[in-house]
Amino acid sequence: MTRTMHIGEFKAKFSEVVELIKNGVTIKVIKGKTGELVGYFGKNLEPAKPVKRKLGFFNTQGVKINKEDLNWSDQELEEFGL
Question: So which domain of life are we looking at (predicted)?
Answer without folding.
Answer: Bacteria
